[in-house]
Specification:
The protein contains eleven helices and eight strands. It is an alpha/beta fold and 261 residues long. The protein has an eight-stranded parallel barrel with strand order 1-2-3-4-5-6-7-8, surrounded by six helices. The structure holds 2-phosphoglycolic acid (PGA).
Amino acid sequence: MSNPRIPRPFFCGNWKLWGTLSDSVSLATGVRDAVAGVAAADVAVGPGFVALATVAEKLKGSSLGVASQDGYWEQKGAFTGEVAMTQIADAGAKYAIVGHSERRQYFGETDETVSRRAKAALAAGLVPIICIGETLSERDAGQALAVVAKQLDGATASLTDDELVKSVIAYEPVWAIGTGRVASPAQAQEIHASIRARLVQRLATRAQQIRILYGGSVKPDNVAELMKEKDIDGALVGGASLTVDSFAKLVKEGVAACTRS
Ligand code: PGA
């Protein structure tokens, strides 16, 4: 057995637009019970806004955290339809996903707005999960490393070094999200290593504390090989987080792969 892995692995579900309130409660409480014995990783679920407070209430006292899928930087005012990071924290969430590629693609999110959201999440006491990742055409044009570096710099531009150390980065290649086409461990590790190197330039040794998650078609049967890579510290999981069995199995396989010597 090796020593506990640093940084501590983290597996976060992203339920996207899914389910009723009662679906959300039963999935969350099912996951809570199924991962109750998992001590070597942080685990969270990502319900929609309407279910956030109820799910958080049901999970109180357990080790399973709650993540929002977005959040706005202003706390109040004439911003119809927005949900403030402070409201999300008040509802009992611990994490806020920001800059997911679906937000960027369909809702006009930019690195600048992602950076504002991340800053507001931290100010509200939440841990931002800052998503970055290239499209297929960018990868095919040989631009993956450059695109990810630019997004990382832009999406973290407003954060102080102390804030950045508290944040989570999620590398999600757009071509792998919801497509069943997972990045190979080597493809993912190449980008994760480049993200780590860029964080080291800014933060020196403190960059080792930052969790860099991989996301994009992570499943129970491919998580282990990803987690064996040096700079992959966990996963942001869409489809496979929508049943208790698959998410609990994914978490357990992922933890086993990185605690095995
Ligand atoms: P997927 O989604 O696991 O269904 O590919 C991942 C994500 O969008 O976070």
